[in-house]
Amino acid sequence: MPESPGMMQRIIFMLQRMRFILFACMFISSAAAAPLAASAREEIDTLLSRLEASACNFNRNGTWYTAAEARSHLMRKLKFLENKDAVQNTEQFIERAASDSSTTGKPYLVKCGNDAPVPSAAWLRAQLQAMRSPGQARSAH
């Protein structure tokens, strides 16, 4: 079935339009996935140093680990997210890497001394708030 010249022009126009939309979407998605800023990385490093220096234990998938082991695990998760440009700030790090297991979905817990375990997200957010407050020398637990 022969196509009219007008039909071919419309098809070409539609293909060009679709190509433009595709490139626009690719640009927007790459712009939204900016790498982690040095200041955010430094803040995350400080947060994890506070965890490691604490006398707290870290529960991951039902097993308790030392704070040093927790830091090591969370650093691996951070590097994974950084390689995918999937974290831009400390809050996203807490939400996407330090709150729960990416394999089981179980929440991570932090237990300091005789205190009851708390969700790691709450513990880390409290530490972050303390770090950002004017008197930054507050305790890690």
Model description:
The mean pLDDT is 87. It is built from five helices and four strands. Helix 2 (38-53) runs antiparallel to helix 3 (67-83), helix 2 (38-53) crosses helix 5 (120-132) and helix 4 (90-96) packs antiparallel against helix 5. A four-stranded antiparallel sheet has the order 2-1-3-4. The longest helix has 28 residues, at 5-32. The protein has two domains: 1-32; 38-132, no CATH class. With 141 residues, the chain is α+β, with helices and mostly antiparallel strands. The termini are far apart. Strand 1 (56-60) and strand 2 form a beta hairpin. The chain is elongated.
Summed up, what is this model?
The protein is an alpha+beta fold.
Secondary structure blueprint with pairings:
Elements (H helix, E strand, L loop, with lengths): L4 H28 L5 H16 L2 E5 L2 E4 H17 L6 H7 L12 E4 L5 E2 H13 L9
Antiparallel strand pairs: 1-2, 1-3, 3-4
Helix pairs in contact: 2-3, 2-5, 4-5
